[in-house]
Write a structure and sequence with these properties.
The chain is built from 13 helices and no strands. It is mainly alpha-helical. The two termini are 22 Å apart.
Length: 241
């Protein structure tokens, strides 16, 4: 149960491409912007005449993703990818859908394609987590180094750091994992979602390393910030006094 909770924290990086990594809300304005972006990319890839054939399918797939209908996304976009393999948004949506379904190998194919087409760091943490699930730890490190070099947002960096630290812990290197997350121990001026995620993983790592005092400290930070987060109350109760 504990390991599954940590996996849930580490594997939440792949949010809707329409809203970005840190947001779950989908306003009509954002959906409109997404449709315009889809139309622009389709016209660049196919030309105006052919773009209309795929626009509706992509918009429908994006809406299905937002409703968490991940199998539907794959069904809608598989023929699009066959015909237009360089359509980045299609590879992105299918890759993130496969990730959410736990189909790690299929997700890496699509996310690697998106990475090559866009050179974007947005989903590198998700890609790294797929490699972690496949126990391809050397690849996790490669993607993490690329992510750090890209210097994306603090939230994306935090996701990547969680995945890399968790991969070290998977290999039995709890000390290395804690060292990787050491910078997250400082209390920030303003608490954001990624801080809470980092603290949860720190609590778990300290618990696994036998330091119940430090584990309780970080789990309590999580509880104070977001009461009832994942299984944090059970984790605190399990540590005793």
């Amino acid at each position: 149960m504990r390991d599954e909770a940590v996996k849930a924290v580490g594997r939440g990086a792949g949010s809707s491409p329409a809203a970005g990594a840190a947001s779950g809300a989908k306003s009509p304005k954002r959906r409109s912007s997404r449709e315009l972006a889809l139309a622009d990319e389709l016209e660049r890839s196919l030309g105006t005449r052919q773009a209309g054939r795929f626009k509706e399918r992509l918009v429908t797939a994006n809406a299905a993703f937002e409703r968490e209908h991940y199998l539907e996304v794959r069904k809608l976009l598989a023929p699009v990818i066959v015909e237009v393999p360089d359509l980045a948004m299609a590879r992105e949506l299918v890759g993130l859908s496969q990730y959410r379904l736990g189909r790690w190998r299929q997700a890496t194919v699509e996310l690697e394609a998106h990475r090559a087409l866009t050179e974007s760091a947005e989903h590198l943490a998700v890609l790294a987590d797929c490699y972690r699930a496949l126990r391809k730890y050397a690849q996790v490190k490669v993607v993490w180094e690329e992510l750090k070099a890209a210097s994306p947002s603090a939230a994306v960096i935090a996701e990547g750091r969680i995945v890399y630290a968790s991969s070290l812990a998977d290999q039995g290197d709890l000390r290395g994992a804690l060292k990787e997350l050491a910078s997250a121990e400082t209390m920030p001026r303003r608490i954001r979602d990624h801080h809470v995620r980092l603290w949860y993983v720190l609590g778990d790592l300290y618990d696994r390393s036998g330091d119940s005092t430090r584990a309780r400290q970080f789990f309590q930070r999580v509880e104070d910030a977001i009461p009832g987060y994942v299984d944090v109350r059970d984790r605190i109760a399990g540590l005793g006094r």
